[in-house]
């Protein structure tokens, strides 16, 4: 969050609802996408018809430990939880800026 200078905004700028759900401003999205492209990979797998995906997902997540995952990873990831909470708080406090159009209040 700090390294990439991510700025949280409400998911719907036209109708901010004060929820914990947030988006990132467009410049932050670009920075995060670049970070993800450099560090993350994607793989696909065709599941056998009788496979139970929940257990398979848990095993894969615990083995690969994806850096942005909070569920099933088997560790608290407190820094990630705190960063997401902070971004949600920033988005809830967001107000349109009079001098630059819609944007986070300074």
What can you tell me about this protein's structure?
The structure is a single chain. With 106 residues, the chain is mainly α. The chain has one domain. It has a two-stranded antiparallel sheet. The longest helix has 16 residues. The relative contact order is 0.20. The model has no long low-confidence stretch (mean pLDDT 87).
For this entry, give a set of tags.
single chain, 106 residues, mainly alpha, 40% helix, elongated
Annotate the secondary structure layout.
Elements: E1 8-10, E2 22-24, H1 26-39, H2 53-64, H3 78-93
Antiparallel strand pairs: 1-2
In percent, how much strand structure appears in the residues?
5-15%
Rg from C-alpha positions?
A: 17 Å
The largest beta-sheet arranges its strands as 1-2
How many beta-strand runs? 2
The residue ranges in which pLDDT falls below 50 over 5 or more consecutive positions are none
The share of residues in helices is: 25-40%
The secondary structure category is mainly alpha
The global form is elongated
- Span of the ends, CA to CA: 18 Å
Largest beta sheet, briefly? 2 strands, antiparallel
Count of alpha and pi helical runs: 3
Q: How many domains make up the 3D coordinates?
A: 1
List the secondary-structure elements in sequence, H or E.
EEHHH
In round numbers, the mean pLDDT is 87
Q: Could you give a short description of this structure?
A:
The protein is mostly helical and 106 residues long. The chain contains 3 helices and 2 strands, in the order E-E-H-H-H.
